[in-house]
């Protein structure tokens, strides 16, 4: 039997256990095309069945389609059965493990969540399904709030529209954080055992799962609203308007301390929950990007529903220009990330999206001030991923807080002892670690809105605060390069070349030291990351954990001279670094 015949045999076995009519018919048609020797059919079959979608520290994530290397009901059923076996195996004798399951508005999210609940219940795990589509942070919250052994969120977050995913949290000692080694490998092994030994129709199911009471959402709203400081007169501004309505011109009713805000949910699930938190915190509701406010799995106005991607915020800029807004707040589709944009005449759109590092610096500074004011600086810590700006460490030292750099991902950031704030540059922020041990775009939005409102009440802007940061701590700038590839071997080749033939300089800036984190070090587990240290700068290189990309992070800083001189120095250094690294990897 040749390799194509083996793939066809695997595909037929998969077809016979697929309960989804759409993917069943899709695979059936593919097999017919293979039989007719269609030129690209064998390559498609090999892509789907030549490997399996790996279960790792980010769970599962991939394109919706038939086959073990895609997201579908067979794969999710196997994952649910494997996770159930893992939970039962690690449960204390005489105890019954439990799990809370959530889902967003992507295609098949509710189907995958319901399949998971039925399979968990069939295995003897207490399964609690959240009452409706909700943001990812609700699952991280519910694991702790309900005291469950684990949590699953069905979402692909900010991935392209055709993707979906399966994100796993653990309770008990893990306190609702995402899985880390060795749990990820143990779950993956349990899933593989299921896939190898049990046909999906033979996996026990039960409809005896529970539907969580709405009070779990109420409690999340209450604790998240409590993050806000008492609002300025913004709280009274336009409260009589129905949500998302008004004259569209904030200036007509603006008074001291008030802000004009535009919000987009990016076709995701953030708005309903965010609106409730705004009401509970006493803030006025913002103007809405109406075309993107309701969940829509087709994502009709964006090709890539990630606020970091070019064009993703174009409708927000349009709405903000029409309204004369002071601030744009954007959540990604599952509302675990936050993007902020400010008026800036230097940009064609009239607005500039802040980098994740800029937002992280401001929220970290705010958290450090609060910890110091409460007399808790010595027992508190700030944390960020190793590819985020070094600026947060400077803030921590200035206020006497601890500081930790972790591997990328909030599964690591959230585990920092004494954490009061953590972030990573990819628009993820953890502002309430006592209740949610994951990035949370809704609580971060409330924290940032509170900061902006406090500034407005004193006649200052967020842009002014960024200048104050640069004047006090130094000016920090960052640039990210993402090299998307069609063949993952290209990434391995670039990483190997950087290790074996590292550059002596980048754009004329000398490389002083190269740290290869493949062996770990300084409390960081082994990771495929290279860190290049240069005078007043740093370059981090790593493969993406969720997409076929090589990611390069450039950071530069300056404390010399006035604000303008610091900015110019950082801009020049970043330009030299970018040119140098592109030359080296091309």
How would you describe the overall organization of this protein?
The chain is built from 17 helices and 23 strands. The chain has about 575 residues and is α/β, with parallel strands linked by helices. The protein has five domains: about 1-50, no CATH class; about 55-210, Alpha-D-Glucose-1,6-Bisphosphate, Chain A, domain 3; about 220-355, Alpha-D-Glucose-1,6-Bisphosphate, Chain A, domain 3 (3-Layer(aba) Sandwich); about 355-470, Alpha-D-Glucose-1,6-Bisphosphate, subunit A, domain 3 (Alpha-D-Glucose-1,6-Bisphosphate, Chain A, domain 3, 3-Layer(aba) Sandwich); about 475-585, TATA-Binding Protein. Strands 1, 2, 3, 4, 5, 6 and 7 form a seven-stranded mixed beta sheet that branches. It has a five-stranded mixed beta sheet with strand order 9-8-10-11-12. Helix 5 links the parallel strand 2 (about 100-105) and strand 3. Belongs to the phosphohexose mutase family. Pfam families: PGM_PMM_I, PGM_PMM_II, PGM_PMM_III, PGM_PMM_IV. Keywords: Isomerase, Magnesium, Metal-binding, Phosphoprotein. It comes from Herbiconiux daphne.
């Amino acid at each position: 039997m040749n390799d194509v015949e083996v793939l066809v045999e695997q595909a037929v076995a998969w077809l016979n256990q697929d309960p989804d009519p759409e993917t069943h018919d899709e695979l059936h048609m593919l097999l017919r095309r293979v039989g007719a020797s269609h030129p690209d059919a064998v390559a498609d079959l090999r892509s789907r069945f030549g490997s399996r979608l790996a279960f790792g520290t980010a769970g599962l994530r991939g394109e919706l389609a038939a086959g073990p290397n895609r997201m579908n009901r067979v794969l999710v059923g196997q994952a649910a059965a494997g996770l159930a076996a893992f939970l039962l195996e690690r449960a204390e004798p005489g105890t019954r493990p439990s799990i809370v399951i959530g889902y967003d508005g992507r295609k098949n999210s509710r189907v995958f969540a319901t399949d998971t609940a039925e399979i968990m219940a069939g295995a003897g795990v207490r399964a609690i399904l959240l009452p409706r589509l909700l943001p990812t942070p609700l699952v991280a919250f519910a694991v702790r709030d309900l005291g469950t052994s684990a949590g699953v969120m069905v979402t692909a977050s900010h991935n392209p529209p055709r993707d979906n995913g399966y994100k796993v949290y653990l309770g008990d000692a893990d306190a609702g954080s995402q899985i880390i080694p060795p749990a990820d490998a143990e779950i993956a092994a349990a899933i593989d055992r299921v896939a190898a030994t049990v046909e999906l129709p033979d996996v026990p199911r039960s409809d005896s799962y529970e539907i969580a009471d709405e009070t779990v959402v109420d409690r999340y709203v209450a604790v998240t609203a409590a993050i806000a400081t008492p609002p300025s007169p913004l709280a009274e501004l336009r409260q009589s308007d129905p949500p998302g309505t008004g004259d569209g011109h904030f200036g007509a009713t603006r008074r001291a301390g008030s802000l004009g805000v535009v919000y987009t949910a990016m076709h995701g699930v953030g708005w309903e929950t965010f609106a409730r938190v705004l009401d509970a915190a006493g803030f006025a509701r913002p103007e809405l990007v109406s075309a993107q406010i309701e969940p829509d799995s087709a994502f009709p106005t964006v090709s890539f529903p990630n606020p970091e991607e070019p064009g993703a915020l174009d409708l927000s800029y349009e709405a903000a220009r029409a309204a004369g807004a002071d601030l744009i707040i954007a959540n990604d589709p599952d509302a675990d990330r936050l993007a902020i944009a400010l008026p800036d005449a230097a940009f064609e759109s009239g607005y500039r999206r802040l980098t994740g590092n800029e937002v992280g610096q401001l929220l970290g500074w705010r958290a450090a001030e609060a910890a110091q004011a409460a007399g808790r600086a010595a027992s508190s810590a700030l944390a960020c991923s190793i590819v985020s700006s070094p600026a947060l460490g400077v803030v921590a030292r200035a206020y006497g807080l601890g500081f930790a750099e972790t591997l990328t991902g909030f599964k690591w950031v959230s585990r920092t002892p004494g954490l009061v704030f953590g972030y990573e540059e990819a628009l993820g922020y953890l502002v309430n670690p006592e209740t949610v041990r994951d990035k949370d775009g809704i609580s971060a939005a409330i924290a940032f809105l509170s900061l902006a409102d406090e500034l407005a009440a004193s006649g200052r802007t967020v842009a002014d605060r960024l200048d104050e940061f640069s004047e006090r701590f130094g000016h920090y700038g960052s640039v990210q390069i993402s090299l998307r590839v069609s063949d993952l071997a290209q990434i391995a080749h670039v990483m190997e070349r950087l290790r074996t033939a590292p550059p002596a300089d980048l754009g004329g800036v000398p490389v002083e030291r190269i740290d290869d984190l493949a062996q770990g070090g300084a409390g960081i587990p082994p990771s495929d990351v290279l860190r290049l240290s240069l005078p007043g700068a740093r370059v981090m290189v790593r493969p993406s954990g969720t997409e076929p990309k090589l990611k390069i992070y450039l950071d530069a800083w300056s404390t010399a001279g006035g604000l303008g001189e610091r900015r110019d120095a950082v801009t020049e250094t970043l330009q030299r670094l970018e040119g140098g690294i592109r030359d080296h990897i091309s």
